[in-house]
Design goal:
This protein is an alpha/beta fold. It has a domain at about 80-225: TIM Barrel, CATH 3.20.20.70. The chain is built from 11 helices and 8 strands. It has helices spanning about 5-10, 30-40, 50-55, 60-65, 80-90, 105-120, 130-140, 160-170, 185-195, 205, 210-225, and strands at about 20-25, 45, 70-80, 95-100, 120-125, 145-150, 175-180, 200. The protein has an 8-stranded parallel beta barrel, surrounded by 9 helices. The protein is globular and about 40 Å long. The two termini are about 30 Å apart.
């Protein structure tokens, strides 16, 4: 007979890390093709900045209509007009919107207000931040729910420097941490071991010969990995 799991035991059951796939393509048609292949193995679909620039938030609406049960992130990288720009994405169906950590605190607070009004979340991207530890403390003090440690695509090659930032930031904050930038299976495993809550992969899935099979393998790997408390 199976014994029941008590409430105290449930408190120690940690969810697996989430897989966010960046659709950094240039057309809604291509994004829909890839999303259809990888759909069962993705937690968060990211409408990538290149796609937003090329086709606007209509791309978000099209994918949200096709896959309404999935969470969607609009990678707007907001630097100004935080409340207005974040509200635009939330109204169009985003569950998460990104702003840059380099933005003024007033901009980020405006985006946080928009997230609260629309029942969404703000992810603040530390792309090219010089003092990640200091900025992470400030973001945590503002109750930012998700901080992204991100190595720019122009700087990646053979690994992600964000792993070093993860070592630095994880002991300092209790919010969710995402990691992005050139992740491969080995760096993904190391990121999870270091405490990443969200793993962001773009071309490592979307530009592969069989994106569906690749996403399935990544998800199965994440399901096997222990997630530190």
């Amino acid at each position: 007979m199976d014994r029941e799991i008590g409430d105290q035991e449930l408190d120690h059951v940690k969810p697996r890390p989430l897989l966010q796939v960046a659709l950094d393509v240039l057309s809604t048609r291509r994004a829909l093709e890839i999303a259809t292949q990888i759909y069962p193995y993705v937690d968060i679909f990211e409408i990538g900045t290149p796609l937003v620039i090329e086709e606007g938030l209509s791309a978000l609406e099209a994918l949200k209509a096709k896959f309404p049960d999935k969470r969607f992130l609009a990678d707007l990288k907001i630097m100004d007009a935080g409340k207005m720009e974040a509200s635009s994405a939330f109204r169009r169906g985003a569950d998460i919107v990104t702003a840059l950590a380099a933005a003024d605190d007033r901009t980020l607070r405006g985006a946080l207000v928009a997230a609260e009004e629309h029942g969404g979340q703000l992810m603040v991207d530390c792309l090219n931040v010089r003092d990640v530890a200091s900025r992470a403390r400030e973001l945590a003090a503002m109750d930012v729910p998700i901080i992204c440690l991100h190595t720019a695509s122009d700087l990646t090659g053979g690994g992600s420097n964000s792993l070093q930032d993860l070592d630095t930031v994880r002991p300092l904050v209790s919010c969710q941490l995402a990691i992005a930038g050139g992740l491969a299976p080995d760096t993904m495993r190391r990121a999870v071991a270091k405490g990443a809550d969200i793993v962001v992969i773009g071309s490592g899935i979307t530009q592969q010969h069989d994106p569906g099979a690749t996403a399935r393998a990544v998800m199965h790997e994440l399901e096997k990995l222990p997630h530190p408390a």
